[in-house]
Amino acid sequence: MFTAVLIYAGAAIAGFGGGAYKARGIEASGAFRLLTYLGFLVLMGYWVQKDSRRNAAWRVWDLGFLMYLLWPLVVPYYLIKTRGAKGLVPIIGILGTYLAAGILGYVILKQ
């Protein structure tokens, strides 16, 4: 549960920061992009590893380079494989959090 909260918080921070950068009309700094991408990747990898221990139906073994390259495909596949249609709910929630925070960051800092 705590890992899920961290993932949603990471999505909110990345979205808000991206919206703020767009509102100011500047490119996101390399450090911000690196930290948000790698931070989200680490959180996703940690969560998939932790969740797959509880769920014996499908075990993720490779959390290295494959996860680094393909996590946008691996995580939704894992969720749908282990939870069926209910696996779409966390995906939509994370994307919604990211988009809502991005819009909020843009609106707040555009003024």
Main features:
111 residues; elongated
Summarize the structure in words.
The protein has 111 residues and is an all-alpha fold. 81% of the residues lie in helices and 0% in strands. The chain has four helices and no strands. Helix 1 (2-24) runs antiparallel to helix 2 (30-54) and helix 2 packs across helix 3 (65-83).
List the helices and strands and how they pair.
Blueprint: H1 2-24, H2 30-54, H3 65-83, H4 88-110
Helix pairs in contact: 1-2, 1-4, 2-3
- SS field, number of helical segments: 4
User: Could you estimate the helical fraction of the residues in percent?
Assistant: over 70%
Number of domains: 1
| C-alpha termini separation | 36 Å
The best one-word shape is elongated
